Amino acid sequence: MSGSGARAAYGMVSGVLPADTTEDVRTRGAGVSAQVAVLPVGSFEQHGPFLPLATDTLVACAVAREIAAAYPVHLLPPLTVSCSHEHAAWPGTVSISAVTLHAVVSDIAASLRRSGVDALVVVNGHGGNYVLGNVVQEASARGERMALFPAAEDWEAARERAGVVTSLLTDMHAGEIETSILLHAHPEFVRPGHESADFTADDRRHLLTLGMSAYTESGVIGRPSLGSAEKGKALLASLAESFEPYAALLTSAPGRR
């Protein structure tokens, strides 16, 4: 591989995959009362003609990196394929079943516990991964420490702080928020076209039955033209602040949660 090719490939990997050694993990774990792992979960699905199929994974990783920069957590590599069945009408989209995603996340949590990491935060970048809520509910009922982040309230706080104009209802897919985060974290992956791709469809009550193609031809539902790198930076900063109560909850003494 040429020098420029090697640099490009390394930049792509280092932006998504953690570079810790086992000694880094050992050292970090020795300095905390309870170890917390952070697992980004994305997807591989259409995001219109200007954002990559890996958008949700890139967003989840960007959020997870912000968390890891502010808190002593064990950052895991992302799950890159998840439940994107509503996007099946577009080429390139790949899905696994909810049962499979449930099993994979549960297995990861169990493996972490065996190695001394008792708490897991799932950072979800794809709204269609409904089953992740069930994974967390079931784990918590068994007395295991797990959380799902960000909640809708965390996104709303981030939206307001960043000056994102579009509501969470309208900004459903490949809109202002996702475009802004990628313009900040991975501008090299944003192609021309988002400036004129706005499309809204607030009434999507039959989405699970009909899929996304019943509501948009382009694959976009939102206002990507309003996206900016500045908004993306502010969104991530707000989410990192919103993580503090999650960290406190997961590292508190048993019986005090």
Which features would summarize this protein structure in a list?
257 residues, alpha/beta, 4-stranded parallel β-sheet, 10 helices, 4 strands, globular, disordered N terminus
Overview of this protein structure:
The protein has 257 residues and is α/β, with parallel strands linked by helices. 44% of the residues lie in helices and 7% in strands. The chain is built from ten helices and four strands, in the order ααβαβαβαβααααα. The protein has helices spanning 3-14, 22-30, 55-70, 98-114, 131-141, 152-162, 176-185, 207-210, 229-242, 244-251, and strands spanning 36-41, 74-75, 119-124, 145-149. Strands 2-1-3-4 form a four-stranded parallel sheet, with helices on both faces. Strand 3 (119-124), helix 5 and strand 4 (145-149) form a beta-alpha-beta unit. The N and C termini lie far apart (52 Å).
Nutshell version of this structure?
With 257 residues, this protein is α/β, with parallel strands linked by helices. The chain has 10 helices and 4 strands. The N and C termini lie far apart (52 Å).
Layout of secondary structure:
Elements: H1 3-14, H2 22-30, E1 36-41, H3 55-70, E2 74-75, H4 98-114, E3 119-124, H5 131-141, E4 145-149, H6 152-162, H7 176-185, H8 207-210, H9 229-242, H10 244-251
Parallel strand pairs: 1-2, 1-3, 3-4
Helix pairs in contact: 3-7, 3-9, 4-5, 6-9, 7-9
